[in-house]
Amino acid sequence: MSNTTATNTIELDVRTDEMLVNMGPQHPSTHGVLRLVLRTDGEVVSEVMPHIGYLHRCAEKIGENLTPRQYIPYTDRMDYLAGMNMNLGWALVVEKLMGIEVPEKGRHLRVLITELNRIASHLVGMGAYGLDLGSFSPFLYAFREREKILDLFEDVCGARLTYSYITVGGATGDLPPGWMEKCLSFLDQFVPVIDEYHTLLTSNAVFIKRTAGIGIMSPELAINYGCSGPVLRGSGVDWDLRRDGEPIFTKMYEGYDYEIVVERRGQYPADQEYPAVPLEAVLGDCWHRFYVRMLEVVQSIRLVRQAIEKYRTTEGSIGEPIKLTQKLPAGEAYLETECPRGQMGFGIVSDGNAIPWRARARSSSLANLSVVPELCRDCLIADVPAIVGSLDLVMGEIDR
Amino acid sequence: MADFTTIHKVLTERFPGATMQAVSEAVDPWIEVSVDDWPRVAQFLKDEPTLAFNYLNCITGVDYCEPDEKKAKKVKWQPHIELLYHLTSLQHKHLLVVKLMLPRWQNDEPEMIPQVPTVSNIWRTADWHEREVYDLVGIEFTGHPDLRRILCPEDWQGHPLRKDYEMPLEYHGIRGR
User: Fold this and answer.
1) Nearest chain B Cα to A51, which residue?
2) Which of A70, A92, A271, B87 is most exposed by smallest CB count within 10 Å?
3) By CA distance, what is A368's nearest residue in B?
4) Which residue in the set B62, B97, B151 is minimally distant from A53, CB to CB?
5) B14 to chain A nearest CA, in Å?
6) φ, ψ at A278 (rounded to 5°)
7) CB-based contact B151 A347, cutoff 8 Å
8) Residue B55 neighbours by CB distance under 10 Å
9) Which of these, A312, A309, A282, lies nearest to A375 by C-alpha position?
10) How far is B148 from chain A (nearest CA, A)?
11) Cα dihedral A296, A113, A192, A254 sign
12) Would you list the domain boundaries of chain B?
C-alpha cells in the first residue's frame, strides 16, 4: 500500500522493535469479541491474525436437535442486528426442501419486514463505524432512528432485540391495526435525516482522511475470498442475490422498482442528490464500502414503501399453516439470501424425520473477516479499526 | 448460463474417470467427484471459461454415522461422510453442488480422520471453511497452509459435529453437560 513508504522513512530515525499486540477481544472497535493479534514494527502492522470462536454457541448442533420451526428463534441470535433477515433465510431453505410456496401477500410482508431490518442494521453499521473512527454523535443519531424501527418490530412480535416474526410458511401473525401508518410516518421523517448523516460522516474531511484509500480491495480479491453484500459491491462487483439469487428468493422482489447500488465511479442513481465521491477515494476502499451501505438505505426505503402499498392491495392469507413438528421430506437443500451483511447461507439435510439430520449456517461475516489479514498488510495500527469497521462484522454470526 | 446436464456433460468429457454419479432430481442437483481427482476438477471448474465457477459459497461436512440398533432398519445409508461444495459463477449466474464421499475413519482405523486435498489454493475463501470443517466434522485437508481449529479451543478433544460425539464431562475445571 502506498501510504507505508512514507511512514517507513519517518520511522527510520527511531529504533523500533517487532512486537505482538493484542487488539481485542474487549477493544470497543472490535465489534463484540473479536481478537486480532497484530505483529507490529513501530506504527506499521506487518501481519494480522484474527482469532475467533469466543461467541461460539454451537448453533449448528442445536439445529440438529430441534424442528425447523423451533429453530427459528436461534437463527436471529446469530446475527442479532438483522434477526428478521436470518429468520427469512432459514424459513426459505426449509420451504425449499418441503416445496411450500408462500402466498403473494406473505411475500410482500416479508419484503416489508426484511427491508426495514436492513435499514436498522445499516444504521448500526454506520453509527458504529463513526464510533470506531472517533466520532460519537453519528452513533447516537443512528441509534435514535433505529429505536423507532425497533418500536415497529416490538409492535409486530413483542421483542426488541431477539425479534422472530417471519417463520416457516409465512409469518407468525398479521400486522397490528395502524402499523402501516406508523411505518409510513417513520419513513417520512427519516428521509430528511439521511442528509444529516451524509453531512456528519460521508462528506466530513476527517472521515474522508481516515477512510479514503485505506484497505483497498480489488474485485478479484473480493470474489476470491468469498466476500459478499456491500463489501463486494463496494469493490465494484455487480452482484446482489435479490436479483441474481435462486428463484425462491428473487420471486419476493418481482415487480419492485429499486436499484442495486454498486460502486461505479460517478454512475450512481441520477435522481438522487448525494455527496460527491471525494478525489482521494479509490474503488474498493473503506469509504466506498461505507458509501454503498448508506445508499442502500435509500433503496430499502423505496422497497418498504412499495411493499406497504402492495401488501395493502393484495388479497389472500399471509402464510401456510405448518405444524410445529411437521415431518420433513428426505433430502438436502441449501439457499443463500441477501442479508444486510452479505450472503447468508443456510443448509438443511433431512433423513425424513421432523428434526433435521444436519443444519448448516454459512455466514457472510466469516468470509468478510477472512480478508482482513490481506487488507491490513503494511497498514498503520490506526487503520486496523477503520478496515475492520468498514466490513460491518457481527461476531455472533461468525462464531454461530 | 449452463444448466446442470450441460455442466455434467462438460465434466464427464474432460474427466472420464473422475465424475461418478450425477443426481438431477434432487432439490439441489449434485455431482459426485472422486477424492483423488478433486483438485484437478476444481481447478478446471474455475478456469474453464464456459463454467467459470469463481465463487465458493460454502463447504459443508455431513456425518452419516453407524445407526444404533433400534433405528438400524429405518436407515438406508452405509456409514460415511459427505463433503459438499457449493459453487457459484458470478459471470454466468449458475450454481453447482459437488459431493465428495469419504469413509468415516481412514482405513477403518478409529481416530484416523479421512483426508481430502485442499482447494484453498484455488479459492482463497476455502482456507477458513476448511479449517471449520476440520474443527467441527473432522476431515483433514492435505496441503492446507494452516490447518488449526477455528471455533473450538486449540486443546479441544474430538470433533463436535460428528454424530457419535460425546460432550466432555469437564474442560479445564468447567463442568460440562
Assistant:
1) B150
2) A271
3) B125
4) B151
5) 24
6) -65, 155
7) no
8) 27
9) A282
10) 11
11) positive
12) 4-164
| Rounded distance between C-alpha atoms, residue A212 and residue B36, angstroms | 46
pLDDT of residue A22: 86
> Contact B152/A56, CB-based, under 8 Å?
yes
Give the best residue of B68, B85, B99, B128 to mutate against chain A (max A CB count within 10 A). B128
Q: Nearest to residue A119, comparing CAs of A91, A145, A80, A94? A: A145
Integer distance in angstroms from the first to the last C-alpha of chain B?
50
Q: Residue A117, class by beta-carbon neighbours within 10 Å (0-12 exposed, 13-18 middle, 19+ buried)?
A: buried
Its pTM stands at 0.87
Helix axes A179-197, A286-313, angle to 10 degrees: 160
Contact B97 A357 (CB under 8 A): no
C-alpha span between B55 and B43 (Å, rounded) = 12
> Nearest-CA residue of chain B relative to A374?
B124
Q: What distance in Å separates the CA atoms of residue B79 and residue B164, rounded to the nearest whole number?
A: 12
Residue A363: alpha-carbon gap to chain centroid:
10
Structure confidence by residue, pLDDT tens digits, A374-395: 888 888 888 888 898 888 888 8
Distance CA B72, CA A37 (A): 48
Q: Which residues from B are below 8 Å from A237, CB to CB?
A: 90
Q: Which CATH class is domain A60-399?
A: mainly alpha
Regarding beta strands B115-117 and A358-362, do their DSSP bridges make them parallel or antiparallel, or are they unpaired? unpaired
Which CATH fold would you assign to the domain B4-164? Beta Polymerase; domain 2 (3.30.460)
